[in-house]
Write a structure and sequence with these properties.
The protein has about 300 residues and is of the alpha+beta class. The chain has 7 helices and 14 strands. It folds into 2 domains: about 15-150, Alpha-Beta Plaits; about 160-295, Alpha-Beta Plaits (2-Layer Sandwich), CATH 3.30.70.1900. The chain has helices at about 5-10, 30-45, 50-55, 95-105, 190-200, 210-225, 265-275; strands spanning about 15-25, 65-70, 80-85, 115-125, 130, 150, 165-175, 175-180, 180, 230-235, 235-240, 245-250, 255-260, 290-295. A hairpin with a 4-residue loop joins β11 (about 235-240) and β12.
Length: about 300
């Protein structure tokens, strides 16, 4: 597939390290927020510098955390399992982040603090393929390359031809906001704006002006790309926030958007978005984009 030169260089500047962790959590039905909280607390105690680099990357400016958790696809070979991604600045602290998993596993999960195990870990390639990875628990001790399995976001693959009909599916709540209100029927333009904004947060400041110019061109292209109206429903996620000591109601939508003629030149931007996710709550797997074959002749 032909690479979009306008998108390739900036995306090549962002590294991603995606892994799937195969778990053993006896006596506990582990959730993404639960595992995220256990790992984050362990990292905070283990290495405050690494914690700030991963959880608070703003340096005085608004910037997203440099990690992402999401449920692994249902597969009896892996279950229970979780996908754990690191981006950009987080890769500089990978050894500490792995060590935090070992600490979290020993501390345990749930009210009774039941210890758990990471049975195995595999890397995910640009097409979502599984790649062998040195034993996760020995990454630091054995001196294995801490960036094994990392690749540039420019390598993210699109599963179809750029002009092939496709469906952009959001199975987990997508939380986009416009003028302070939830976007309940997102368009391709809404997705492009969110993707460009998310990527910009990981780019060096010197590239922001060029990226903003390119993003404007992509937005205009998205507005003229054939698409069907959004099909979906509201889906709100209720969770407890330990930081805020209260229940949170995370409002979002799930559904899909059909592109009868494919994404065209937007494919690489959307491919990157499938790994970074879109909107709010990405650290818990919200805003995940899946690409499926569309129906030829959809209007």
């Amino acid at each position: 597939m032909t690479t979009n030169p306008a998108a390739h260089y900036p995306l090549a500047e962002i590294s991603i390290l995606p892994r799937r962790l195969l778990l053993d959590t006896p006596g506990v039905e582990a959730t993404v927020p639960m595992l995220r909280g256990a790992w984050g607390a362990a990292l905070h105690d283990l290495d405050p510098v690494a914690y700030r680099a991963v959880f608070d990357t703003g340096n005085g400016e608004a910037a997203p955390p440099a990690y992402l958790f999401r449920p692994a696809p249902p597969d009896p070979r892996f279950a229970p399992a979780i996908d754990w991604f690191l981006f950009g600045p987080a890769l500089d602290h990978e050894q500490a982040l792995v060590e935090a998993w070992r600490m979290a596993a020993a501390r345990g999960l749930g009210p009774r603090r039941r210890p758990f195990k990471i049975r195995h870990a595999v890397a995910l390639g640009p097409r979502g393929e599984l790649r062998p990875l040195a034993e996760f628990a020995r990454t630091q001790v054995a001196g294995a390359c801490p960036l094994a399995g990392a690749w540039p976001l420019a390598g993210a693959a699109w599963p179809l031809a750029a002009t092939a009909p496709c469906r952009l599916v959001f199975p987990a709540p997508l939380r986009l906001r416009r003028q302070g209100r939830l976007v309940e029927r997102p368009t391709l333009a809404d997705l492009v704006v969110a993707a460009a904004r998310r990527i910009a947060a990981f780019l060096p400041h010197a590239q922001h002006d060029a990226w903003r110019t390119q993003s404007t061109a992509w937005l205009e292209l998205a507005r003229h790309t054939p698409q069907t109206p959004w099909v979906g429903d509201r889906l709100d996620l209720h969770r407890y926030s330990g930081r805020q000591q209260s229940e949170l109601d995370l409002r979002g939508v799930t559904g899909w958007l059909e592109l009868p003629e494919g994404p065209g030149e937007l494919w690489q931007l959307l491919a990157a978005a499938s790994w970074l996710h879109l909107g709010k709550g990405t650290v818990m797997g919200l805003g995940q984009l899946l690409v499926e074959k569309g129906q030829t002749g959809t209007t």
